[in-house]
From TrEMBL:
Protein name: Alpha/beta hydrolase
Domain BD-FAE-like: 88-272
Native organism: Protaetiibacter mangrovi
Gene3D superfamilies: alpha/beta hydrolase (3.40.50.1820)
Listed GO MF terms: hydrolase activity
Keyword Hydrolase: yes
Length: 330
């Protein structure tokens, strides 16, 4: 087991105080169910929208300074939230260098609907973007979305099990879901804690290690810093800073020669495994970044991971009946 992290303790005390927009699917009013004519394929042919999946868009999960925070809900087919057993939920967080991107992007809509078709009520989250809203705005928003899902009203509305909320993110979204998984401590069924994390191509350590020259200004803009030498937010925004033995299982996937150096994933996996955290590490040959990596094989590995880590701790019990079993003796 990893020794206590002094940086984490110090920061904890300090902190207390596809890029194409989906066309033709604008919501009406505060909330509307999307209907897509046919299938819309993203730049990754393995990610396409699924018109059969009920998708309710632009649900307000909070507000900051009068600005609404919105998410989309993708529902499994033939799922009745009022009568079916509660299901594990997944929160999806889009990428875009913390400065652009949206839950509405075709590929991210496709991810939401793919996970819903696989049986998980799935929620694609928008968050405030940098540089207008530097760290910690984005992680505060994503955390607020998880807390909102745990409210009794949302649990009943969507038929989810608040003890089994997973997270999925790519690129900047991978950084954010990794923070979701590591920034808290203790039980995984409270507050903004999540029970399982899938992160693809995440920039995990923002302190200046394993970073390309062209990505340095992207990190600094997100962190609200001018130089890397004077950037106290860098450590706080790095998921490996917070790792401890209570963190949830992680699935880490990274390409071998992509824009975020593979060493970022290796640093994170080492920290997780040193702390005794259940960690699956997948490397993909080539340059594909984030959800561009997804193919049928990676999809199945991700679903296998969620099936194992988000499984109910207790199996449903059949309702009692006075009728004898069919093979009982008369």
């Amino acid at each position: 087991m990893r020794a206590a992290n002094p940086t984490r303790a110090a920061l904890g005390a300090a902190l207390l105080g596809a890029v194409v927009l989906l066309a033709g699917c604008a919501p009406t009013g505060d909330e509307a169910t999307t209907e897509v004519e046919g299938v819309v394929v993203s730049s990754n042919p393995n990610l396409a929208t699924d018109p059969e999946i009920p998708t309710t868009v632009d649900i307000e999960y909070g507000a900051v300074d009068g600005q609404p925070l919105l998410l989309d809900a993708c529902s499994p087919l033939d799922f009745d939230a009022l009568t079916d057993p509660a299901r594990a939920a997944i929160v999806v967080v889009h990428g875009g260098s913390w400065a652009r991107g949206s839950k509405n992007d075709i590929a991210w809509r496709a991810v939401c609907q793919w996970l819903a078709r696989s049986g998980y009520p799935t929620f694609a989250v928008n968050y405030r973007l940098a540089p207008a809203n530097p760290y910690p705005a984005a992680i505060d928003d994503v955390s607020a979305a998880v807390e909102w899902l745990r409210e009794p009203e949302q649990v009943a509305r969507f038929g989810i099990d608040p003890d089994r909320i997973g997270a999925f993110g790519g690129s900047a979204g991978a950084n954010l879901v990794s923070l979701l998984g590591t920034r808290g401590t203790g039980a995984l069924d409270e507050g903004a804690r999540v029970a399982a994390v899938v992160e693809l191509s995440g920039p995990i350590d923002l302190t200046g290690v394993a970073v390309t020259d062209d990505f340095v200004p992207v990190q600094l803009a997100y962190l609200g810093c001018v130089t890397a030498d004077d950037c106290p937010a860098a450590s706080a925004a790095s998921a490996d800073t917070w790792v401890d033995e209570t963190d949830p299982p992680f699935f880490v996937a990274h390409s071998t020669d992509e824009m975020i150096p593979l060493e970022q994933a290796r640093i994170f996996v080492r920290a997780l495994r040193d702390a005794g955290v259940d960690t699956t590490f997948v490397t993909v040959e080539g340059r594909l970044h984030s959800i561009a990596m997804i193919d049928d094989g990676l999809k199945q590995r991700i679903l296998d991971f969620y099936a194992r880590t988000l499984a109910p701790t207790e199996l449903p019990v059949a309702p009692a009946t006075d009728e004898p079993p069919a093979d009982a003796a008369p």
